[in-house]
Request: fold
Amino acid sequence: MRRSLDLYFRLISIQLRSQMQYRVSFWVDTFTTGLLNFSYFASTYLVLERFGSISGWQIGELAFLYGMIEAAFGTMDMIFSGFDPDFFAVNIRQGSLDQILLRPVNALTQIFGSAFVLRRVGRIAQGLGVLALSFSLLNIHWTMAKLAYLPVVFLSQVAAMGALFMVGSTFTFWTVQRVEAINIVTYGGVEVMSYPSSIYPTWLRGFFTYILPFVFLNYYPALYFLGKADPHGMPVFAPFLAPLAAGLMLFAALRFWRFGLRHYQSTGT
Reply:
């Protein structure tokens, strides 16, 4: 484990040095990424200026939902860059995975260290900025339990979305190309978690509750932090299921990854 961690940090340091070779390009890319993603929240703000609320959620409460998932997804997209299905599919087509499997080092360590897109800090920063805005707009009653649980929810969101990246990459063992359905679920899931689940039809809410448990990753924890009532009548412990939901998703993704790796056949490139 220690050797793998040491190797991982060495690989990441190489990635960081290479990306900082052209610093002006890096900072421009980072700034524009953050600005583009912030424009999505700005459009929601303009809508609320006209209509006041969405399903009873004010701008500060929506900013909490949006800021949490945006910062978490940006962090995941940076850490799990090696498992981005678009990037991973290129490795499959070019035969790079064959080289990884031939080395006497854990494949997961190599893949995690193969990409670390630092410019994702733009998305992370704008997510944290919106989250800070929500704190200024809301009068949240912070307790020690809430302060301790907030980073747990954040890490749960990172792990859960990273699990979807791993599943999408595993599918490319057989498809060679990326599977668009995974991107729809991953990036679409971010959009779903940016708004209260009460605005969605029953079938869609059921899918993101019992099939992909996204509502337990952001919406129900938000109810706990903001002190809002649950309109769906879920059990009182529902806001605290975020680490369990993320753990199950990551466990299933790792099992699927190992299954795919055992049945991997090179493209012959």
Notes: Residues 64 and 131 are 5 Å apart (CA to CA).
